[in-house]
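Same chain as my last thread, 220 residues:
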Amino acid sequence: MAGSVSPASPEPYRASTAPPFPRPRRPLGPPPGAGARHWYENVLGWATAPGAPLRLMTGVRFDVLDVPAEAGAVALRHLAPASPVALMGGRMRLLVAAGSAEELPGLLDWLEWGALAPDLRALGAGCLTEAPAPPERVVGAAMPRPGAGAMQGAAVWLRPPEPGRDVEAVLPALPSFEGVTGAPDLARLVDTVAAQCHRVRLRRGAGPRSRGRDQPLAFS
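reply #2:
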């Protein structure tokens, strides 16, 4: 009709471009390894390195003597029952007094093992060692059986450290001028491990065939 005004056309529907309402999210739990780190740092008082996997700093409260598992097993008799021992990838890690790593080369020479025991390694100041999983009662995780997973490279405790004990007091150490009471003798431990390492190498046909008749064991 002339002169009439047609009704305004409705605006076309446009989908909302606003972001959807976020879904509820579960509270974030502690990061992996937090319980283990707390146990090592706050219960045992051991220093850990940042990052993953969880690693312990050596040279602070203890050093580590890293030896073939077969040789380490023979030397267990020289350790106190509460002395911590770990397994990792066919190697045994014996905790020894801090500063022992620095003494190891001279000690091997004094015991007349020298280059005959190349399988012995010591981790001291500035080094790191992988932290085995704490016992089940600490973090609620399954505690591996002694040796379970060790051959795959995972560190496990054969003898875990016990909270409430003065661990350093039972670690093998060299006697001082004042005398050390209660701590196993580091020299006897190293001599036993070196002798066993040498026997293992001879069975495998590697290395020198004899130590020499004029080089008796320092300790029997």
